[in-house]
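Methods — Computational structure assignment.
A single polypeptide chain was analysed. Its primary sequence is given first, followed by the predicted tertiary structure written as structure tokens.
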Amino acid sequence: MNDQSLTHDRAQSLPALTGALLFALTLFGYPIIGNFVSWLEIESRVISIPFRVLVAALSITVIAVASYINLDRWRFLVLLIWYALALRLGFDTWIAIIDSAEYALEFFLIACVLPALAIWALDAYNQKYYASIGFIVASVGSLTALLADYYGLLGESSLTEITGRLSSTALNPVSLGHLALSGFFCGLTLIRSVPIWVRAPIALIMMALVMVIIQTGSKGPVIGLVIILLIWAKQRALIAPLIGLGVLATMAILVYVDNPFAQRLMAIEDDPSTIDRITLIQDSIRQIANSPWIGSASVELISGSYPHNIFLEGALAFGLPLTIMLALLLFYGFSKSLRLLKTENDLIPLLFLQAIVISQISGALFADSMLWACLILILGLETVNNEKN
């Protein structure tokens, strides 16, 4: 019996390792490419397109090799939403002729659907693999950006010059902030499974990742860090220690008053990005009211931009009925995440909650690879848990 279990574990290790590598490259790999683009001052497509093609090729290979893809009612709903969004983006590309639709369709299929399908097809998960590779890739991308900014290697970025926020010619501060937050969550789960002598370096890197979040001055990653840590601590009965650490961290941030995040908080009423976002939301709601059942376009037509909220985007793209189904699907994933946070398999729930936070304030259905990949994994983890029980 023990020999059979060992053989099964070894057989599952390669798919789990492949899934972890694909997951890390898809979610955290591009910022490293973006750093090289900024350092070398070259056209982004020179490196980014080969990188995306590499990830897509790996995904297609995994899908082709996999013998089957397990399909239940929740996964069927995921496929339905993917199909509806692809149909809308295709219509906007070739019929409505919306400029941004072609890029959105290509990105959605290559960077979201293919990797998520590959992870789904692998049907194998090992948290230590996912946390280790994710922590390395996300930390490298975040900390190299911080060091490059310190040494003036990120190129000219008007946003950095005007606001002091950590960003580059290829990477905006929101992307860097969320990358650092993902690395922090990977470290939070990894630190429990490594020898004691490795925990101190991981903890130091996690502190540096928090510094990256503060330096980007982005509200979303800070909100995500606070909310998700509170949920995680509540599920694991760690509220009191977390509050104590939170008070110390808040005091440290307030003392460091010149950081970009503190400056944005003090000037939030005059923040142009916040004002523009409110206008975009109002215009999106009016557009939804004009075509509530089947949607009207993948973008808000006055600005030509996606509304930075996946539910508004869904209502714009494929109407309220399917958007309600999307909400039910994500609520199902959220409820399963709360249960999984009580177990040792808490990495993917943490990242899924981060994706939910992102999706409400700066997310896009066509570009949210973290949301789709984590949702597929959440559904798979829940299926495994049900089988074991």
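Note: The longest helix spans residues 2-40.
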